[in-house]
Design goal:
The protein is an alpha+beta fold and about 500 residues long. The protein has 2 domains: about 230 residues, 2-Layer Sandwich (Endonuclease, Chain A); about 210 residues, Endonuclease, Chain A (2-Layer Sandwich). The chain is about 40% helix and about 20% strand. The longest helix has 17 residues. It is globular. The two termini are about 20 Å apart.
C-alpha cells in the first residue's frame, strides 16, 4: 500500500513514496504560465485581507478545510500571495507529487524576496542531503531539522546507536503542523505535505481536516513557531553537514523542480486554474458566512523537548488542555482520532464523563482502513473494555461513501479508481459549542512524547458544523458501529490480521 506508516517505537520506518503518472494526456502549456506570479495590488495577501483589518485586531476569522483538494489549493494561493514571510512546520514533508509542486511554489516565492523558514521533524524526512542543502542554499529559504537523532546526517550505525543509547530522545518527535503566511494567516490541522493528505494518491488517501485562521490568534501561533525555530533541538541544515562532502548543485535542482511542476502530467492545468480562481472563492466564503469571526480562539502547543525528564509519561500542555475540556463537558464529547490507544488515565477520564451523563462517541480507523498496524493492535487490546465503559465506538470503512463528497481533486474526477480511504482527522466537539482541530491523536505518543498543537474554537457555528460532519462520518455508509458482539475485523485479509496480532508484543505506552 502506498501510504505513510507512522513511526513505530521499535523500529525506524523509512518510507518511499511513488508517484504514478496518470494516463490522461493534456496539451502543452506555455512555460511562462507555470512561473508567472500575478502579484499585483489586487492579488497580494494584504489587499485580500484589507476589508478585515479592523476585525483582525480583536477577532479570529475561522474557516474549516474539509476537502484535501481545497486545502492544497489554499496553501498554493497563500504562497503565491505572500509578500513578506512564510513559516512552515511539519512532521512530514514528502518529495512526492504534492511535495515537489509545493517546493516549486516556495522557491518562486523566495525568488521574489519572501523570507521562508522550514522546520521539519527528522524522523520522516524523505530527501537526500544534497536536495535539502540545495534548498537551504537559497538566500531567502532556511531549513532546520527538529531533533536530528535518527535520520538526517547519520549513517545506519549512528542511527542504531542513537536508538539504543537514547530511546526516549529518539522517540520525542515534533508532530506540530502549521503553515503561516505574512504572520497573518495560518493553516493548521491534521494534514502533512504528501499526496495522500490531499486526495492525490492512487492507492490510499486520508479523510483529514485543517482549519484556516486569520486575525488575533495568529500572534500566538507566530510565537509558538519562533519558540520551536529558536530551540536548541532545531538544527540548521548547514550545521548537520558542516565539513561533509555534499554536492549541492542548487541551480540544477531548482531547474528540475520547475520543469517537474511545469509538466502538465504532474500539475494539471485545471488545478492551476482553480488556484488562480481562489481570490473569487475567498470573496464568496466571506459573503456566504462560511468564514466565521470568533471572539475566542485558542492555539495550544506543547513546548519543544516535551517531557525531557519524564519521557514515556508526564503529559504536556496539549494533553492537559484536552483533559480539562473533557472534564468540563456537560452534554456530549464527539471525537475523531485515527489511532485510539487508551491508558488507565484516559479510560478513567471517559468513565467519569459517562457517569455524569455525558455522551461519548469516538470514530477511529477499522482494521481495513488503518495505515498503522501497531496503533490498531494497541486499540484492539482495549476495545472491549472501552465498550463496557459506555463509549459509542465507530470504525471507518475503507470505501466510505463520504470520499465522493470530500475528495474533489482532479485525480478523483479524471481517473476511475477506488483507493483505500483512511481516517486521519484529529478533531473533537464538546457540548456542540467547542470545536477542537489539530494534530493530537488519542494515544500515549501524542500525550507524552510528540509535541502537538490544537486550535480550540469557542463558537456554536463552527462547532455545529464540525458536529454535523462527524455525525455524517459515523453514518452506516461510512463507518461500522462497534458493539460487544460485533466488529468488522473479519473483513480484513488474514495477513493483516496476523500482522496486527504479531504487534501485540509492543508496549502500549510507546505506540
Amino acid at each position: 500500500m502506498n501510504s505513510i506508516c507512522r513511526f513505530g517505537c521499535l523500529n525506524l520506518l523509512i518510507f518511499i513514496i511513488g508517484c504514478s503518472s496518470n494516463e490522461e494526456t493534456y496539451p502543452s502549456i506555455n512555460e511562462d504560465f507555470c512561473v508567472q506570479i500575478h502579484l499585483d495590488s489586487n492579488h497580494s495577501l494584504a489587499s485580500q485581507l484589507a476589508p478585515f483589518s479592523e476585525l483582525m485586531t480583536t477577532k479570529t476569522g475561522v474557516y474549516t478545510l474539509e476537502e484535501g483538494d481545497n486545502s492544497m489549493i489554499a496553501r498554493a494561493w497563500l504562497t503565491e500571495s505572500a509578500e513578506e514571510t512564510i513559516d512552515i512546520q511539519y512532521f512530514i514533508f514528502s518529495a512526492d507529487n504534492i511535495g515537489l509542486i509545493a517546493i516549486d511554489y516556495l522557491l518562486r516565492a523566495a525568488d521574489r524576496g519572501v523570507k521562508i523558514r522550514m522546520l521539519v521533524d527528522d524522523i520522516m524526512v524523505e530527501a537526500d542531503a544534497e536536495d535539502l542543502m540545495a534548498l537551504d542554499a537559497h538566500p531567502n529559504l532556511s531549513i532546520k531539522i527538529y531533533n536530528p537523532s535518527a535520520n538526517i546526517g547519520k549513517n545506519l550505525p549512528e542511527k542504531l546507536y542513537s536508538l539504543s543509547n537514547d530511546f526516549r530522545g529518539f522517540n520525542q518527535r515534533m508532530h506540530n503542523k502549521t503553515f503561516i503566511v505574512d504572520r497573518k494567516v495560518v493553516i493548521t490541522g491534521g494534514r502533512n505535505i504528501a499526496d495522500e493528505y490531499f486526495d492525490y494518491d492512487h492507492e490510499y488517501n486520508f479523510r483529514d481536516r485543517d482549519i484556516l485562521l486569520m486575525g488575533e490568534v495568529t500572534n500566538d501561533i507566530n510565537d509558538s513557531f519562533n519558540l520551536f525555530w529558536e530551540s536548541n533541538l532545531s538544527v540548521p541544515m548547514s550545521d548537520l553537514y558542516d565539513g561533509k562532502d555534499v554536492d549541492i548543485n542548487a541551480e540544477a535542482k531548482y531547474s528540475y523542480i520547475q520543469q517537474y511542476a511545469c509538466n502538465p502530467e504532474n500539475f494539471w492545468p485545471q488545478v492551476r486554474e482553480k488556484i488562480q480562481s481562489v481570490p473569487i472563492a475567498f470573496k464568496n466564503i466571506q459573503t456566504s458566512g462560511d468564514l466565521v469571526w470568533v471572539d475566542s480562539v485558542s492555539f495550544v502547543s506543547d513546548l519543544p523537548g516535551k517531557n525531557e525528564e519524564d519521557g514515556l509519561k508526564g503529559g504536556g500542555t496539549s494533553t492537559d488542555h484536552l483533559i480539562d475540556l473533557i472534564r468540563k463537558a456537560k452534554k456530549s464529547v464527539y471525537i475523531q482520532s485515527p489511532y485510539l490507544v487508551t491508558t488507565e488515565l484516559s479510560q478513567q477520564l471517559f468513565r467519569e464523563a459517562i457517569d455524569k451523563g455525558v455522551e461519548v462517541k469516538i470514530l477511529t480507523n477499522s482494521m481495513m482502513s488503518t495505515d498503522n498496524l501497531e496503533a490498531f493492535s494497541g486499540y484492539k487490546r482495549d476495545r472491549e473494555k472501552l465498550l463496557e465503559t459506555g463509549i459509542d465506538i465507530y470504525e471507518f470503512k475503507p470505501d466510505a461513501a463520504i470520499r465522493f463528497k470530500v475528495m474533489t481533486g482532479a485525480l478523483q474526477k479524471e481517473i476511475d479508481y477506488t483507493p483505500i480511504f483512511g481516517l486521519h482527522a484529529k478533531s473533537m466537539v464538546v457540548d456542540e459549542s467547542i470545536a477542537v482541530i489539530g494534530t493530537f491523536n488519542l494515544d500515549p505518543r501524542s500525550a507524552n512524547l510528540n509535541t502537538e498543537c490544537i486550535a480550540v474554537v469557542h463558537d456554536r457555528t463552527i462547532a455545529g458544523n464540525l458536529y454535523t460532519a462527524m455525525l455524517e462520518d459515523m453514518k452506516p455508509e461510512n463507518a461500522w458501529h462497534i458493539t460487544l458482539s460485533f466488529n468488522p475485523d473479519g473483513e480484513a485479509g488474514w495477513w493483516k490480521r496476523f500482522s496486527i496480532w504479531l504487534r501485540g508484543v509492543v508496549p502500549k505506552s510507546i505506540l
